[in-house]
């Protein structure tokens, strides 16, 4: 197990390097100019100096290696200093956003909590809905509950989140006026009133994302339960007189959860990607919204860093899924 | 009657007699040419179709999907208002005889725009799916069939799977929209860009499925038999391997249409799709979001079309998967 993990971790390094290179070169090949908005009255030599100041003067491979150094060396050092009060990173240049002229990671750190509360919570709710639905519809296969569950989950992942979101806003935000349609990120939870306001504004985005996630996970749960319900050990458990509850909830459920947990781990980074759209619908100023404004504003360091963080999440969670599978299922041997 | 023919008949009678003595029944030999022997023939695709018809949801979905396609293809010939015709005096009108589904903020007819938008959305979905499936099957076939290509191609697939797709798609579309629009015109340029971007980022699943199936097929006897009579690699793939992996490819293709339609409308929704005067379902939805408080139908209609089409395609894919699974078929 340990050798497998080490090997996979070592393999992840070239993968991530390659991905960062792809994103970097894609940005490099783009015709967009970060100085495109500078007025034409600015003389060319001044413009050239501005370009130098943004670090655009040197050839692309120099800038790529510089960015790598900043991402993997300067930024961790800076956070280390921040935590332990040391001075290792003094005088080192951090990754600076073209738009806000402040370090990219500071901006990201401001945005992460919003995304995490909405996305993380919706994923949790989605899982909590999906697993019971999957269990019941597999246990009562072809019953009306199963048919309904299949139909609803089909609808769930056929309706794009930007449509369900907008429909929810029209119904509950505009017509019924139950929930605010715009997510207010300046809201601080201090007392019960503000807590209630926070809950109210989270209900709609969380519902949209949770429905979408629950639709997919419940299908996996159902298929996995069905696989296990037909196994011999289930018959044995019933034959030795265990109650139906013990058979289903202890024996079958535990075994069926193994593949579902890996699916949940694999889906987590995709949720961050999908949240880009939901954040746009509900005007949550999280990571997705940050990425879109950065793309529109030709903010190359910001786009590069954010996209690369998404890539790290994907690689990391794929690895976690594989390791979890090995830990949970002793039949799986990686060596 | 020629000599060979006579000889053949003679041998048939002899065999029938000989075997009838042994077996006690004489139905005659099986016909020489079983394909034209009369009676009901059962081809694989007819079996698949028969199984598919018994999946009620998939049949309803197929009918709905075909009618959506007819609506966007034939519709514009029956409802001849130009979708880009601006009638500013009739703007924001509700459902009426002149405009059955109302008009938008510039007085353009919504019915005509929905038809035109559907054409583009479905065309994007189909073309992107064809690109993705061709690429995926090719890579899957090559890496499954040629052992030397397997490791590098699968590493490539894993690399692509690790890419953050939506951010990358957003990036590609924003960065390359301008140059492509200049060389192919705004509509065609965006179409090429979106279709190839979606195709290039969604072939991985198909490649993995195809590779797995090819690896399993390679162990079968008929492949060994074909190899032993010296079949060259290209004929091996085209005649023996490809037809046998066609069913997973078709299922993946159907589901690919759904993903491509959703991705295109998501891009349009983020304002990164087709230019404004060029309607697609996603673009119509995006344009209407600003005024959704006053005119909610303008948001709901394109959204319904997207969801319905995707739902139909998903159901068809589900039905196809069931119909093509030989373990279920024939039950």
Question: Can you give a write-up of this model?
Answer:
Chain B: It is a multi-pass membrane protein. Chain B: The chain crosses the membrane at residues 59-79, 120-146, 158-176, 188-210, 245-274, 294-317. Chain B: Keywords: Cell membrane, Membrane, Transmembrane, Transmembrane helix, Transport. The complex is a heterodimer of chains A (335) and B (331). Helix content of chain A is 76%, strand content 0%. Chain A has 335 residues and is mainly alpha-helical. In chain A, helix 5 (144-158) packs across helix 7 (192-229). In chain A, 33% of the residues are buried. Chain B is mostly helical. Chain B has 13 helices and no strands. Chain B has helices at residues 3-23, 44-53, 56-78, 110-145, 147-162, 165-184, 186-200, 204-217, 221-228, 233-241, 246-269, 281-289, 296-324. The radius of gyration of chain B is 27 Å and the shape is globular. The mean pLDDT of chain B is 80. The interface between A and B is large, with 45 and 40 residues.
Annotation field: number of helices of chain A: 11
How many strands appear in the DSSP assignment of chain A?
Answer: 0
What level of helicity do the residues of chain A show? over 70%
- Please state the structural category of chain B: mainly alpha
Task: Tell me the quaternary state.
Answer: heterodimer
The major β-sheet of chain A equals:
none
Mean pLDDT, all residues of chain B:
80
Contiguous uncertain segments of 5+ residues of chain A: none
Q: Describe the largest sheet of chain B.
A: none
Mean pLDDT of chain A: 81
Low-confidence stretches of chain B: none
Q: Which two chains share the most extensive interface? A: A-B, 45 and 40 residues
Shape call of chain B: globular
């Amino acid at each position: 197990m340990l050798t497998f993990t080490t090997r996979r971790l070592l393999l992840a390094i070239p993968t991530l390097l390659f991905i960062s290179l792809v994103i970097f070169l894609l940005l490099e090949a783009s015709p967009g100019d970060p100085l495109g908005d500078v007025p034409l009255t600015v003389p060319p030599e001044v413009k050239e100096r501005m370009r130098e100041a943004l670090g655009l003067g040197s050839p692309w491979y120099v800038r790529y290696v510089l960015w790598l150094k900043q991402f993997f060396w300067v930024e961790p050092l800076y956070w280390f200093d921040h935590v332990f009060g040391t001075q290792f990173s003094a005088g080192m240049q951090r990754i600076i956003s073209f738009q806000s002229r402040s370090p990219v990671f500071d901006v990201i750190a401001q945005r992460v909590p919003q995304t995490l509360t909405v996305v993380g919570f919706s994923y949790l709710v989605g899982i909590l809905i999906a697993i019971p639905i999957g269990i019941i519809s597999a246990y009562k296969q072809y019953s009306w509950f199963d048919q309904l569950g299949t139909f609803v989950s089909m609808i769930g992942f056929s309706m794009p989140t930007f449509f369900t979101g907008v429909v929810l806003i029209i119904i509950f935000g505009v017509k019924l006026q139950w929930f605010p349609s715009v997510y207010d990120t300046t809201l601080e939870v201090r007392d019960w009133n503000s807590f209630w306001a926070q809950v109210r504004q989270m209900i709609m985005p969380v519902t949209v994302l949770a429905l979408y996630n629950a639709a997919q996970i419940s299908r996996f749960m159902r298929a996995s339960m069905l696989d296990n319900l037909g196994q011999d050990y289930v018959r044995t458990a019933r034959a030795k007189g265990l109650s139906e509850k013990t058979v289903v909830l202890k024996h079958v459920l535990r075994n069926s959860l193994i593949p579902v947990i890996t699916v949940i781990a694999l889906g987590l980074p995709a949720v961050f990607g999908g949240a880009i759209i939901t954040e746009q619908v509900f005007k949550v100023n999280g990571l997705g919204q940050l990425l879109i404004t950065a793309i529109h504003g030709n903010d190359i360091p910001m786009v590069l860093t954010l996209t690369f963080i998404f890539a790290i999440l994907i690689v990391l969670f794929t690895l976690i899924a594989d390791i979890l599978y090995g830990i949970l299922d002793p039949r799986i041997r990686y060596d | 009657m020629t000599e060979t023919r006579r000889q053949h008949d003679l041998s048939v009678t002899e065999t029938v007699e000989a075997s009838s003595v042994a077996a006690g029944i004489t139905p005659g030999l099986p016909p020489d040419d079983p394909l034209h022997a009369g009676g009901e023939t059962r081809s694989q695709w007819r079996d698949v179709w028969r199984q598919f018809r018994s999946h009620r949801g998939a049949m309803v979905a197929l009918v709905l999907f075909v009618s959506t396609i007819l609506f966007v293809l034939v519709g514009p010939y029956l409802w001849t208002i130009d979708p880009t015709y601006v009638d500013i005096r009739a703007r924001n009108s509700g459902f009426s005889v002149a405009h059955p589904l109302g008009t938008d903020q510039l007085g353009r007819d919504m019915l005509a725009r929905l038809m035109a938008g559907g054409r583009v959305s479905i065309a994007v979905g189909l073309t992107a799916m064809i690109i993705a499936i061709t690429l995926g099957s090719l890579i899957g076939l090559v890496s499954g069939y040629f052992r030397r290509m397997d490791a590098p191609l699968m590493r490539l697939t894993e690399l692509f799977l690790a890419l953050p797709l939506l951010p990358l798609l957003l990036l590609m579309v924003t960065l390359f929209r301008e140059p492509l629009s200049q060389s192919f015109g705004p509509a065609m340029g965006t179409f090429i860009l979106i279709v190839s971007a979606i195709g290039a980022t969604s072939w991985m699943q198909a490649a993995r499925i195809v590779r797995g199936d090819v690896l399993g097929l390679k162990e079968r006897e008929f492949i060994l038999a074909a190899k032993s009579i010296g079949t060259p690699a290209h004929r091996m793939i085209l005649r023996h391997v490809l037809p046998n992996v066609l069913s997973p490819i078709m299922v993946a293709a159907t589901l690919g249409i759904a993903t491509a339609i959703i991705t295109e409308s998501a891009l349009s929704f983020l304002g990164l799709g087709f230019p404004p005067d060029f309607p697609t379902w996603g673009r119509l939805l995006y344009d209407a979001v600003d005024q959704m408080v006053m005119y909610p139908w303008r948001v709901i209609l394109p959204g319904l079309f997207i969801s319905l089409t995707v739902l139909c395609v998903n159901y068809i894919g589900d039905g196809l998967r069931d119909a093509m699974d030989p373990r279920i078929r024939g039950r």
